[in-house]
Amino acid sequence: MPIAYIALGSNLGEKKENLLQAIALLKNKGVKILQVSSFLLTKPYGVIDQPDFLNGALKIEYDKSPEELLELLLEIEQEMGRVRTRHWGERVIDLDLLLFGQETRKTKKLTLPHADLENREFVLAPLAEIAPDIITPNGHGTITELLIKLRKRDVEK
Ligand code: ROI
Fold this sequence. Notes:
Strand content: 15-25%
CATH superfamily: 7,8-Dihydro-6-hydroxymethylpterin-pyrophosphokinase HPPK
Low-confidence stretches: none
CATH architecture: 2-Layer Sandwich
Bound molecules: 7,8-dihydro-7,7-dimethyl-6-hydroxypterin
């Protein structure tokens, strides 16, 4: 069965409860949760005038397509009352599909691996806890190597 990785984020309301609820809803919908990272409080990236985020990552097993998984993630975001305010704004829950086996996509709806994976410490840090040695399909290195590279880049800025 294909293994996929999902990023979780919340910066509104009870952040920890929101992440736990999203995991429970995934389970209810038949997704097998294999591993849950710790949750890290992170400074907002991109649009910085918003509350800190609580971020985490999941390793799951899923027997349908990446597109179906994406639909499921969007469904959960909606069920949890995510309101899209501004682009890259605050949200109760954000579920991003990061990796799906060795699948690659570049469609309007879905980019695999996630387009901004290598630039986001708040994604790579929890992911490195549960999948330090996996190599992304585009072959830029292991998750640990990507995280080290990103941290070096940030120091040099
Ligand atoms: N920044 C952090 N730290 N964590 C997130 O989950 C997050 N999500 C986003 C943007 C607004 C890009 N920034 C973030 O969508």
